[in-house]
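User: I'm curious whether this sequence folds into something compact or stays loose and floppy. Could you predict its structure so I can see for myself?
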Amino acid sequence: MSPEMKNHILLLLLPVLMAGFTTQAQYNPEKVSKKAGQYHSKALELADGDDYPGAIQALRQAIAIDSNFEDAYLSLAGMYGQLKNYPEAIRNYEKAKSIDSNYFLDFNLPYSIDLAGVGAFQKALQAVNLFLTISNLNETSRKAGDYRKACYTFALNYAATNPSRDYKFEPLNLGDSVNSEVSEYYPTVTIDGSKLIFTRRVNHLNEDFYESDRIGGHWEKARSLPGNINTNMNEGAQNISQDGQWLIFTGCNFPDGLGSCDLYISYLTPDGWSTPENLGETINTEFWESAPSLSPDKRDLYFTSSRPGGYGGNDLYVSHRMLNGKWTQPENLGPEINTVGNESAPFIHADNQSLYFTSDGHPGYGGDDLFVSRKGPKGTWGKPENLGYPINTIENEGSLVVAADGKTAYYASDRADSRGGLDLYTFELRSDVRPAQTLWVQGKVFDKTTHKGLPSSVELTDLSTQEPVSKLQTDETGNYLITLPKGKDYAFHVNRKGYMLFSENFPLSKEQGDTAYNMDIPLQPIEANAVVILKNIFYETNRYDLKPESRAELDEIVQFMRDNPAIKIQINGHTDNSGKQAENLKLSEARARSVTTYLLSKGIPQLRLSYKGWGDTQPVADNSTPGGRALNRRTELKIISR
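Assistant: Here's the prediction. I'll summarize afterward.
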């Protein structure tokens, strides 16, 4: 037990907090039975040696001798409070108060803390207000009282404005396959929820990484990560990329470290995890860097740092990965996120819009609380929102991760059913603080002719805002994974110089399915007569005006033309067989002309462009079904020459 904890216990066990013994008190410690007093003294000695069961037993013996021994009840309450057994702490405080409320007055502060521990914030506020009525409180005690009063007031205001009567906070221990007699913490999961990686304190000293696979709805026996990642030094505070291929973590006092704790990266290979690499002096400093979180497209790295120039002790930063694989100078997330206090444990969800973190600087319940901030359309972060009680408590909350489904959360806690120390738990996140449920599409980009994998650029765009949601490079063999937050419609593009543009559309603004997409993409080499269907060109019904949602696709075509300056193309318009054939022909030609006009407006020379309307003469699907007719209404890009 640390000296600070021992001092805290002594403050709770002894009437040291008292600003001055009140003359109105009825209880007189000097009249306590000598034998009861001996048991009380023995209890304090046992508590100082961390023997709480023995100390509690001694106090019960003291009370058995003298049932009005108020100091014994106060000491029992203090011990139970330190053990986080708040109901027993409250019961003993209230017994002490019933003996002599005047003598108890100075103990209303710890009593209020235990009341808040069970969520009784109204009673806690009343208790701390009584404590603050003491006229001769010293400055430290008054500051402690004022701090707790602010916390309880916040809790009551939060409950009034964020009613969650139907929410049940029921953390479920992940069980013996994951948890052990030592501490497990810092959970992180892949996007499909099939793999859990966490830190375990091995032999009570060394920190190593372990993994567990979820098979048939159950977590398999955890095992040490294979490869060269675990050492006899401390590896911790890790984050696995959504595709399960990268692991970024905190290494402290490593031989190649730049500061006390640095960020390192390891890659999954056929032989396990690679030897960790220091992320270098762009990311790491002579100060403290920790708690990394990688965005789902691997382009943004969030982390905590104590470097100077921030807003408080520890601040949150982000660095962006450039196309050449190097990281930019980290940017402070700014005063909306960071405070004069400490922010830590950032977690960016698979939706790439919801950032969870801990803070002791934003208003909360006391200590480190969990917050969520949402990224705005221009990349700015919104005002952090406290996750509320009972997710947040009067204790220090640790790291939190949320699965792609937006509701399943994982965290570490030392609850009553812990196997030992901290255990990993899962619970359902309250609906109003959830991120967007996120699907994903994964597959391989390859040459249509040779079937060889192609490193390519993959981009996802929000059609309603025309803002890019994710942009990434496939790996060297063409494999990719990109996340699809539900509730929006997306344009999906794959590009590689010398190949035809690939276009797909994911309409998820209304679709309620939960199925992820597997999509291998054969890129067609640019050659005469090669054709690609442009799936994100949209028109008003029976009109040729381009809808604003088409701009992302149109700009992709512009870039395609600039990347391949020798090619000439033809834009082809097609309709289904609804209506008269002559009108369909006219409409298809007008639509193809609209696309060509846009390209001309962006500086593409006229001699490289042509267009043609085909009406309903070249169907690619059966016109007898709505789905078939939708496929037949299309715009194509055809290579005329290169």
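Summary: The first strand starts at residue 172 and ends at 173. The two ends are 75 Å apart (CA to CA).
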